[in-house]
Amino acid sequence: MSFSKPSRAAWQAAQGSCLFELEPALSRQRGVLHLGPAGQCAQPAGAHSKLLLPYGTDNRLLAGWTLHSGTCQVLRGLTVERNQSEVVSCLPRGSTAGVVFSWAGGDKSGDYLAVAATYLLDGTFSCGLVPSQAKIVLTIRNLGDLIPTDSFDLLKYNHTPLHFVDAFLWHEHLFFPYYRLPHGPPSVVVLNSRGHFHTPTQVRLSCGCRGHILASSILPQQGFWAGVFANQTERPAWAVPAWDNTALCLFDLAFLRDATFHYRKDVDKWERVQQKSPTLIHSDLSAVYATVVLNKIVVFLGTSNGQLLKVILNKNLEPNCPEILHEIEEETPVFPKLALDPVDSNYIYLASANEVRRIQVANCSNYVSHSDCLSAEDPYCEWCHLTNRYFLIFHICMQKKHIFRKGEVIIEGRNFTKELDLKVVLTGSGGCKREIISVGKALNDTHMKFSLPRGRKEAKRVCVSAAKDKCSSPVTLYYVSPPSCINIRPNSSWASGGRKITLFGRNVNVADGVVISDEQGSHLNVSSYPENTTSCHFLAPAVSHAKASKIVDVLLKVENVHKSCIKLQYHPDPVFINYELQTEMDPHLELKLYKENDNLDISKNEIEVFLHYENGSHLETIRFSVQNITKNPKHSTVLCKGKREGQDKIDFSTVKIYVSKTLFFMHQYIFCILLYLILNMFFLVAFIVTRHKSKELTHQLSEQLELLECELRKEIREGFAELQMDMSDVVDSFGTVPFLDYKHFALRTFFPEFTLIFDESLTLLQTLICNKNFLVTLIHTLEKQKTFSVKDRCLFASYLTIALQTKLVYLTHILEVLTKDLMEQSSNVQPKLMLRRTESVVEKLLTNWMSVCLSGFLRETVGETFYLLVTALNQRINKGPVDIITCKALNTLNEDWLLWQVTEFSTLTLNIIFEKTPDHENADTCQTISVSVLDCDTIGQAKEKIFQAFVNKNGSLYGLQLDEIGLELQSGAQQKELSDIDESSPILEDGKTKLNTIGHYGISDGATVKVLKKKTPDVDYSDEYCHLILPNSETVKDIQGAKTKGKQKFKVKEMYLTKLLSTKVAIHSVVEKLFRSIWSLPNNKAPVAIKYFFDFLDAQAESKKITDPDVVHIWKTNSLPLRFWVNILKNPQFVFDIKKTPHIDGCLSVIAQAFMDAFSLTEHQLGKEAPTNKLLYAKDIPLYKEEVKAYYKAIRDLPPLSSSEVEDFLIQESKKHENEFNEEVALTAIYRYTKTYHEEILTKLERDGGQEEALKQFLQVKALFDEKKKCTWMRTEHC
């Protein structure tokens, strides 16, 4: 409901699609105008009043409605003179504010309407306007036709809509207060009507950092504008408001009109800004009207819980304690507009829900004496200010206000037992006096109890102070009216009880429970569970006399008083009479339950149905989902559907159908009631145990949300700052790159999961393996065997690579033949899938061949940058906290390894003194260095950083290993041994031991720590220990057995996702350098192996008449980056003599994924819900893709290699690796496969023509191996 500014003759109020004309005293209704069907103000749906603006002296009114695309009517009385659509907002949630003004002189003289409206919400164009028009929110319209004459680009819909609160005229300037949805900031637009609005200005407002404007009022003579501002955080419906969630601010209109630009560092731009400290802070303000009485500013304020307050400001604009003038019993919110009665200024109008009320502005009769009246300083009580006389009041009519309060209140905190003289301080809003309550001694260190004084309905700040200390951080205490009931749903239960009943009302969360009272007057206490301030639920208890309906009273228990609430009707339990089980679609089953009609209105969500049948000695269960419940004159049908597992048949003679929640079961032709007492008792006990905590949780959750908001702001700001400062966070020097020798590089590439032992010798098979026809036949035969697994294929290919390591020309010919054969297999299905996986011998052989031929390129061109990346990642990870148990870190690239539970930490610089070791006794090494550590580092982590710092400083390792040294804190003549675990380690209540950290020992910045020789045990940090990720409970027992309790800050993982981005930024230059070193062409030449194999693939595509360029691109990608480079990027331990941690593996996986995305031809459309590892490099991938395409094209454009060039390269590579491996061992492994599948290979050789010599050699090899085994057995037997 809304109303216009009242006049002496009449005033108008609108509700839905109706406009009412009322007497000023609300004594009667003069008339009503219906825009919809007569007598139906709620029709059409969505009809709302958007503007009621009286103007002129002849009872004229502008009325704007959501109907007809935002129509605006010009009325005289209730007579419509003209209409114009598309003026106000047509959206129910859209805002509209307008003001009528006059222009004098010139062609444009006349009366005009300045209107600001929201035509666009959520990116949807509405109100019949085209997009360009819908974005304009502020227009000037002539009252003659309401067509726009001016519009302004200063304010437009720009991704987020604007919400206008008011519009008013002051000193020929128009003011439009507004804020951007959803979170502000609040602003005001000022237009100069004298200048025909050529230079509108915009001023940003600040009222204690509150982002919403709720209500507005102007004091024109004093030049003030009063606004009610609210915190931008939207609290859940169940949460209670904070004591400071709203505030009243007064702004000087002249300052707003003449505001100048100021530079704002936080947004790096110039803005007009007006900052004001709140005049009054109060919870849940919703409306304001300001006026002046006897030179005093009086402010009337409405609240969202139905209060009308009066505040009087002194000459310094300081408020008194707000007076409650009126309270709406239903506690419905007061609408933003308040207005004084123009006939009798002793009354004020307020609107709430569907009512308008006329309230007296003062209760002067409440003042007993002249001094009381004077101290109140209420200018409406005129008798206080008469200097010659005053009245004697003999009869006082006190307004009775029943304010609910709890007698005893428990405060939870910490350190209460450290002080003896504790006081609780209660502070109301504005100028209200503080109340100080002496507590004396606390109950324990974390709890104190005090008696709460009576008070009125409001939110107060509560803090605790000791004798000489300041008050603690305040919490909010709420005085509310007594709980009351409005409705109950469902309004009936079955006699056996157990039905969930939801009770709706006001302040039901403060009730101590629900009581059921029957006609005999017996009371049964029932546990209730508040869902929010307006609803709670309970389980209906069982009642006697179940054969007939009965009505009981539902009461609310408030301390020791039972307050009448509502009626609950009991009906007999439901009766199920039959069922039908349909199995035609087995295993999908359909079940129909038939029950007698009743008045219970059972919903499908209130019952569960399941079927039991016997299968031999086992009892099988099938659960059904209830689809619907239909009712006909004879009975009700419950339709259920289910699916059974297994293939066994249902024995219908053993079928039993159970209906749970209603607590019935039945079997064929016999139906009986089964009460699940054990289940009920379990739930009852669980609810009783948790009930007393439910009220605390609501308050604690509100505090946690406030803390979360602060944490989010802090973390986002720190994350943004880190992005700007850490862009060059990469090591500059890392010493010599620890390359592995070729032998170990090849072994780790060929056999990533195996270790070979070279202690055998063998000189067989070599000639046979070098027979190309035999080798190809052997490989194809092996791959046709079902037991020749993928693992066997990879091992066979790796053994073959070692056996032919010095014969790369021959190995390359074999690779060509096998690749062509693979193409023949793939071409008939999907050629794009070729070489995508490693499921054949040739695919693994190609991987090994690339590793052999590119090892030199890897070492000379890519290796140094790759090592720099690994080093930079390690440095970045260790720069922040790392949980030593899980290896998760705050600085990471991979969300799965993100340590978001970390608390605050700081960096310390320690002076480290090393004991001299024999290796460095006379060496020129620095024995004293400075090392940076974190206060959250364990002692083991600190040791690792100290060791690394020693290497960086001296270029050599310390003489002892990590497990051979200890750390000792030096403090004057005292020393303190440091270790991860000692007698001071905290033991958490679940038995876990928290590892000691630098901060645990209280080590300060600049402290001296000595490294000395001391054997330390190698501890396996299993589930018995924790570091930075603590268990849910943090109750810690110290050595003496005392308990302390604390809480972690409320955190969510998403707060720290900026750490992924900052890590990416820090190493980005190295990643790009690495990628470009891979797809570069040094001296405009491609590595021989790459050029050769890419040309081979191009030739094969051409011979097979494959014209799709994507196919060849995919073949090349599957051959080189997927088969070789990704394997290297994810496994730096293949290339360097380093240990890869699981965390580094996770980060490199993200980089490797980005690398492969650069080669992909698929365009991925990523949304907000895409994985973070995809989003991190989403903007870089398009650039990389272009570089990859250019790389492939550059290779293809190079002159083709001659056969001699390729052979020369392969021969040189073969010579490099002579005597690297014992080839006989590899041949022995190959023979084991030929022995396993001897018969299959022999059969194939016999069938193929031209293999006679190979067949003869194959049989000879087997004979020699058998003879060798026999001889070996005889020697063993002889011994």
From TrEMBL:
Q: Where does the chain cross the membrane?
A: 666-689
Q: What GO molecular function annotation could you give as one example from this UniProt entry?
A: semaphorin receptor activity
Looking up Pfam families in the UniProt record yields: Plexin_cytopl, Plexin_RBD, PSI
Please list the GO biological process terms of this entry: negative regulation of cell adhesion; positive regulation of axonogenesis; regulation of cell migration; regulation of cell shape
Q: Which UniProt keywords apply?
A: Disulfide bond, Glycoprotein, Membrane, Transmembrane, Transmembrane helix
Q: Where in the cell is it found?
A: Membrane
Domain Sema per the UniProt entry, residue ranges? 1-344
By what name is this protein known?
A: Plexin C1
Organism, as annotated: Crocodylus porosus
